[in-house]
């Protein structure tokens, strides 16, 4: 009896657990949560039904299935692959593609695996784009490469409901011998640039030196010119002052002579005094160091004046009379 009751209890527990498991499985299959940034694609018996937005959703048990698709932008980094440039140089290239699902229905039903399709398409695009560029262009024009790859892949990915936002080239690795040649070329260019800069510096220094000498000569010439001008102006001023002085002196002499003549005219002059003055003037002319002596026309008058003066002095007793002693003055 006890064993039978124990068996009934165990059976009831097993049945209850089984029912609970069925309920849990039922609820799990009916209740679905879609996270933010994703959408849920509901298929009923394998046929597209509806797209569910983020949140809690109830599905039809055993009939509906939900597949979640991330609609956020996501990067897909490919492995390094070998490409050949236009000038037959092999490169190892890797790129990252930033894409985003814009049409969930197309992404699920137009292509089996859109992620794998994008990876394969990127490899093809890399080979095609690098095949149109030389080595130098491949190493220096990454923006051009990114644009060309995006243009090459955009049309194909739009059919899959995927939008390419941008493509970035991560790494471009040339072969070792090419790297060595590029290093030597870079070193040679640096030496060339250094030599050019040195020559340009020497040229500029020579130009600056010549310019400095030119400016110094110009300044020196201008200084000499200014000094000559100042000296000429000073000499001119001296001559003007001297001429003004002589003119003033002549004016003063003329005024003095005029005043003297005027005074003489007023008071008169003794003939004896006038004769003495004429004789002194004649003596000064005779004793001058000139090679020629000009005798005035009035010389005879001067001799007469001298005789008159001597007679006057004899009368005054200033000169002794030589005739009384019988001596005579030689003519």
Essential attributes:
331 residues; alpha+beta; Tetrahydropterin Synthase, Chain A; 18% strand
List the uncertain runs: 323-331
State the CATH architecture of the domain at 74-174.
2-Layer Sandwich
How many E strands? 9
The share of residues in helices is 55-70%
Radius of gyration: 68 Å
Helix segment count? 8
N-to-C span: 216 Å
Coarse morphology: rod-shaped
- Coarse structural class: alpha+beta
What is the CATH class of the domain at 74-174?
Answer: Alpha Beta
Describe the structure.
Helix 3 (114-130) crosses helix 5 and helix 7 (271-286) crosses helix 8 (299-316). Among the domains are: 21-70; 74-174, Band 7 domain (Tetrahydropterin Synthase, Chain A, 2-Layer Sandwich). The chain has eight helices and nine strands. Strand 7 (81-84) and strand 8 form a beta hairpin. It is rod-shaped, with a radius of gyration of 68 Å. It has 331 residues and is α+β, with helices and mostly antiparallel strands.
Quick overview of this protein structure:
This protein is an alpha+beta fold and 331 residues long. Helix content is 61%, strand content 18%. It is built from eight helices and nine strands.
Can you lay out the helices and strands and say which pair or pack?
Layout: H1 2-30, E1 31-34, E2 38-44, E3 47-52, E4 55-58, E5 64-70, E6 74-77, E7 81-84, E8 90-101, H2 104-109, H3 114-130, H4 135-140, H5 142-158, E9 162-173, H6 176-267, H7 271-286, H8 299-316
Antiparallel strand pairs: 1-4, 2-3, 2-5, 6-8, 7-8, 8-9
Helix pairs in contact: 3-5, 7-8
């Amino acid at each position: 009896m006890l064993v039978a009751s124990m068996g009934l209890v165990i059976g009831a527990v097993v049945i209850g657990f089984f029912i609970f498991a069925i309920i849990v499985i039922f609820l799990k299959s009916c209740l679905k949560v879609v996270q933010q940034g994703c959408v849920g694609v509901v298929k009923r018996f394998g046929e597209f039904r509806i797209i569910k937005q983020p949140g809690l959703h109830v599905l039809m048990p055993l009939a509906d299935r939900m597949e979640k698709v991330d609609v956020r932008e996501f990067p897909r980094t490919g492995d390094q692959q070998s490409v050949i440039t236009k000038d037959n140089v092999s490169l190892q290239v890797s790129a990252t593609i930033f894409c985003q699902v814009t049409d969930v229905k197309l992404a699920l039903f137009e292509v089996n695996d859109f992620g794998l399709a994008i990876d394969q398409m990127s490899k093809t695009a890399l080979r095609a784009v690098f095949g149109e560029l030389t080595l130098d262009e491949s190493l220096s024009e990454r923006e051009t490469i990114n644009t060309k790859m995006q243009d090459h892949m955009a049309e194909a990915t739009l059919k899959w409901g995927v939008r390419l936002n941008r493509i970035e080239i991560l790494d471009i690795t040339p072969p070792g011998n090419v790297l060595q040649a590029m290093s030597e070329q870079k070193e040679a260019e640096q030496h060339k640039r250094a030599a050019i800069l040195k020559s340009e510096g020497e040229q500029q220094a020579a130009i600056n030196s010549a310019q400095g000498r030119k400016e110094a000569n110009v300044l020196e010439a201008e200084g000499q010119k200014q000094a000559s001008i100042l000296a000429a102006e000073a000499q001119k001023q001296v001559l003007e002052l001297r001429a003004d002085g002589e003119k003033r002196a002549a004016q003063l002499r003329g005024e003095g002579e005029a005043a003297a003549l005027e005074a003489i005219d007023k008071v008169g002059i003794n003939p004896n005094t006038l004769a003495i003055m004429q004789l002194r003037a004649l003596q000064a002319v005779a004793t001058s160091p000139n090679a020629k002596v000009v005798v005035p026309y009035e010389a005879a008058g001067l001799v007469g004046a001298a005789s008159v003066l001597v007679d006057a002095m004899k009368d005054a007793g200033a000169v002794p009379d030589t005739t009384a002693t019988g001596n005579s003055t030689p003519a």
